Amino acid sequence: MDLPDRQDLFAAGRRYVKAQPNTRINPAVIDVAGSDINLMLGSASLMGEQITASWAKCIRGLFVSTAIGSQLDQVVYERFGITRLPANAASDDLRLARPTFAAGGGTVPAGTRVTTASGSIFALATDVVFGATDLVRPLVSSVAALVGSSQNVPENTLTAFVDQPFDASITVTNPEGAAGGTEQESDAAFRGRALSFFLTLRRGILAAIQFGATTVPGVAVATAFDIVNPGTALPAGAVQLIIGDANGNASSLMEQQVTNQMLQYRAGGIPVYVSGGLLFFQQVVYRLAFQTGVDTTAASEAVRATAVAFSQFLRPGQSLLESDLTAAARAVPGVIVQADSVVVPVGDVVPTVNQQIIRVRPQDVSFV
């Protein structure tokens, strides 16, 4: 929707005046330049246009796709916690050498400046130490004195010292061109980076891999864990992903679909091995009491169904807690649950391996 400009607001004022009954103002005078009513409506419409423009600027700053300048900085930081990249100084590796070691040992200190023929100046980031017989030293980092892409100088152009080293015969050059010099991130680049924030958020970590698996139809539970090197327990650069449906089962088609989906969630170069889990069916025995007037048969069946339903949410490698079985019984109206209402299992049931999926079937629940 287009916002009203001065002409629209003036027209609205004209319609208002003409719509008033018994007014002493001749409506024709509204469009007479310099008349009192013309000046009044004109100034009011101009102020209204300025108010509309200010409101539009505020609204524009609420959205990443429309905000510009400082408004873009603010909305991106508030929503994503990231800031605009500042202008950056270029850096380059320099090689220092000398034809003879007649001057003996010495140090070219950090901060020593070198320059190109066009005047771009770089400073050594660390000391360069020449031993008594050293002719060539390893490459040393240098940083441009000015920020910006103009300082990304080509190779073999940093060839002169601004600050004379201890040995006047030492020469300098840059075998590779400088890199990393940039201007402050533009609105367009900053906006594009901000809008891609959620597309890459938490990808590659175990939680993201598990979530990605559950986006495949039929997959209800998933657990991802690092494959580790024996003895050191350090990650071996691969991930094992165990999947299952609500009953803990998995087909080869599901496994292949999850494998395909992992291209959107795994870290680059890290394989994810997808497989079904090892089902373990846990027996559950309840000792329950009931409130007066409660249909004990129906209530017992409700407890059975609740325990079965709860177990369907257990992921591979996740424990079945005795307290959760107690809570499942307590959730049924009319059931009196005591501290010893869960007879079996005695305590929490902990999977023996990460691949194990604990499930409770209707036939696994009984009452005493």
Explain what the structure shows.
With about 375 residues, the chain is an alpha+beta fold. It folds into four domains: about 5-60, no CATH class; about 90-175; about 200-275, ANL, C-terminal domain (GMP Synthetase, Chain A, domain 3, 2-Layer Sandwich); about 280-365. Helices cover about 30% and strands about 20% of the residues. It contains nine helices and 18 strands. It has helices spanning about 5-20, 35-60, 70-80, 185-195, 195-200, 205-215, 250-260, 295-310, 320-330; strands at about 90-95, 105-110, 115, 120-125, 130, 140-145, 160, 170-175, 220-230, 235-245, 270-275, 280, 285, 290, 335, 340-345, 355-360, 365. Strand 9 (about 220-230) and strand 10 form a beta hairpin. Helix 1 (about 5-20) crosses helix 2 (about 35-60). The mean pLDDT is about 90.
Topology diagram in text:
Blueprint: H1 6-19, H2 36-60, H3 69-80, E1 89-97, E2 106-108, E3 113-115, E4 121-124, E5 128-130, E6 140-147, E7 160-161, E8 171-173, H4 187-195, H5 197-200, H6 206-214, E9 221-228, E10 235-244, H7 252-261, E11 272-276, E12 278-281, E13 284-286, E14 289-290, H8 296-311, H9 322-330, E15 335-336, E16 342-344, E17 356-359, E18 365-367
Parallel strand pairs: 10-11, 12-17, 13-18
Antiparallel strand pairs: 1-6, 1-8, 2-5, 3-4, 3-7, 4-6, 9-10, 13-16, 14-15
